[in-house]
Specification:
Layout: E1 5-8, H1 10-14, H2 23-35, E2 39-43, H3 48-54, H4 56-59, E3 66-69, E4 74-76, E5 81-84, H5 89-101, E6 109-114, E7 118-121, H6 126-133, E8 139-142, E9 152-158, H7 164-175, E10 179-183, E11 188-193, H8 198-209, E12 216-220, H9 226-231, E13 234-237, H10 243-248, H11 261-272
Parallel strand pairs: 1-2, 1-12, 2-3, 7-8, 12-13
Antiparallel strand pairs: 3-4, 4-5, 6-7, 6-9, 9-11, 10-11
Length: 274
């Protein structure tokens, strides 16, 4: 059975360390995928506007990319939003209240992602705000996060990278099945609505395009990719992934993100299945 949809995580997977990719090579790959009627999906913890800006060079050439953004909270084809899941005011209040009472949260950064704007506290330093803007468009600093008048897709806490899995486990223990906690690299721990992850987001696109699980190929490197990597047979973990990810997924991409491992692996598959 052939592949009809390829979904790739971005940071640490598709993108190099400089948050860039080989535009010319990717444009050629998209031509070949389109010729074979294979969809390419950017599946990321990033906001959809950030992903669209990232791929603007190939979009300007007329290529089409679909999106599973904000770790599955927003799903869109190249021109139509299909799905979005927001935290309820009650859920948002519980998350912020838990953080305020958690002794380990004293120095951490809180990021709230809406569909249009990203919110951080006024207490964040200019240096921290500048770092947030690398991954989130339209960042706004506010005095009170709970006073924000926009539906929120996810809440992100930022801790030291080596503490992420500890905090993910703790949050899952606290919120159980009510909310979904996941680690997405760079010290980020994301809180989303119940059942929201990249695998459920990809399923929305599968239903829209009538694609079976065996017709999906996925790439990832971190905890927020685990659900999709475990769901699909054609799943590739990056060689540069965290040790717990390398132990969880059998197949590895042909190279790491610095060496265009995702494109290498897709091109190799296309050549062998021409």
């Amino acid at each position: 059975m052939g592949i009809k949809l390829i979904a790739s995580d971005m940071d640490g997977t598709f993108l190099r360390k400089d948050n860039m990719y080989n535009v010319e090579r990717f444009a050629k790959l998209l031509v070949e995928l389109n010729n074979r009627q294979i969809k390419f999906v950017a599946a990321s913890g990033r906001q959809i506007r950030n992903l669209q800006e990232l791929f603007q060079p190939v979009l300007d050439e007329g290529h089409q990319i679909d999106y599973v953004a904000s770790n599955g909270a927003v799903v869109s084809t190249f021109d139509q939003k299909l799905y979005s899941v927001h935290l309820t005011p009650d859920e948002l209040g519980k998350v912020i209240d838990w953080n305020a009472k958690n002794p380990e949260s004293a120095e951490n950064l809180i990021i709230m992602t809406g569909e249009e704007t990203t919110y951080i506290s006024n207490h964040a330093t200019p240096e921290v705000a500048a770092q947030v803007k690398l991954f989130y468009p339209n960042v706004k600093q506010v005095e009170k996060l709970l006073a924000v008048d926009e539906k929120i897709l996810e809440v992100t806490f930022v801790w030291p990278t080596d503490e992420v899995q500890h905090h993910v486990a703790k949050l899952r223990e606290v919120f159980g099945n009510e909310l979904h906690a996941t680690g997405s690299g760079f010290g980020s721990v994301d809180i989303l609505g119940h059942g929201v992850d990249k695998a459920t987001g990809i399923q929305v696109l599968q239903d829209y395009y009538d694609v079976l699980d065996d017709e999906v190929m996925v790439f990832g490197d971190n905890g927020n990719d685990l659900e999709m990597l475990q769901k699909y047979t054609n799943a590739y973990v990056m060689p540069n992934a965290s040790p717990f990810m390398l132990q969880s997924i059998n197949k590895k991409a042909l190279a790491d993100n610095r060496a265009d491992g995702v494109m290498n692996t897709i091109e190799d598959w296309l050549e062998k299945n021409g």
